[in-house]
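Module 6 notes. Inverse folding takes a fixed backbone as the condition and produces residue identities as the prediction. Think of it as a translation problem where the source language is geometry and the target language is the twenty amino acids. Below is one complete input and output pair. Work through it position by position during the lab.
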């Protein structure tokens, strides 16, 4: 599993995780975690929302993997495999009206 996937899973478990905590959870530097979070945000997998002095992350579980062999699979499948949270019901991207 890639570090990008690991970061996504840490955030799925704790949407208010600090970069320091994300880095420690998967064994990378804080700077590397910051870069990965930025990559995930730029690619539309998550949104970072500043609340006071903390960040709160919102994952878009409908985003699909980038690799061609998994391009038809939403990231929700990965989240379901490794966590007990279902983001489909409790974390919709802002402005999403179902």
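Target side of the pair, the amino acids:
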């Amino acid at each position: 599993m890639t570090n990008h996937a690991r970061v996504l899973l840490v955030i799925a478990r704790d949407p208010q995780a600090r970069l320091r905590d994300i880095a420690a959870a998967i064994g990378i530097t804080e700077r590397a975690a910051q870069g990965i979070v930025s990559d995930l945000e730029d690619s539309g997998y998550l949104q970072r929302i500043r609340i006071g002095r903390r960040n709160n992350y919102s994952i878009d579980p409908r985003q699909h993997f980038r690799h061609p062999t998994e391009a038809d699979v939403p990231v929700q499948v990965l989240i379901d495999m490794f966590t007990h949270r279902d983001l489909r019901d409790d974390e919709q991207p802002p402005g999403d009206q179902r």
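Reference fact for the lab report: Helices lie at 3-13, 19-26, 30-42, 76-82, 87-90.
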